[in-house]
Amino acid sequence: MRIALTMRITEAPGTAELRDAISHDWLARLAAWDMTPVPVPNILAQPEAYLDGLGVDLLVLTGGDDLGVTLERDATESRLLAHAVGKGLAVLGVCRGMQLINHHLGGRLSRIDDHVACSHDIVVEPVWRDLYDGRTTVNSFHALGIPADGLAEGLAAAAFDSEGHVEAFHHRTKPLAGVMWHPERPDAPAEDRRLIESLTAEGAFWT
What we know:
By secondary structure, the chain is of the alpha/beta class. It is built from five helices and 13 strands.
């Protein structure tokens, strides 16, 4: 299984050079799951054609940085998302990636407190309970959240935190999902592997 991963834009210490970067956590996690990571650069003239040429089973819009911080990344990921949805390629948004999907489709984000570098419980909706228990614990590294009334049209909540913020969603008919936690980092649910496998093998498995 080949997984396309979007990347952060960082600046190398002591230089003015911008670089694309992907956490080793992603590479190690996918290797442990017998999946092949395929990073996608941020300054391609035709990211859609590049994605087509990779022959991947899933596009993961990874976490890191708020929307609007690195415009090149925002543009690349928005184009990749639109292209993947149009082609029927499965997409998983992680943290920032989930926020980008919601924003791209017309949803709303809001500031959220006490969700950075911690763990908390979530309640999983029945539609995902074949993968996750009804209540599970996830890691958390985000300062922006999605209020219950902030989901874009076409999206449905799959999990909530204790304050009612959306912690996971899926598109009602397309193979498109998002989770606010980080499957690649410690304290992520072990069931995240099944989520990725179900998305790639079945597409919109919740329909």
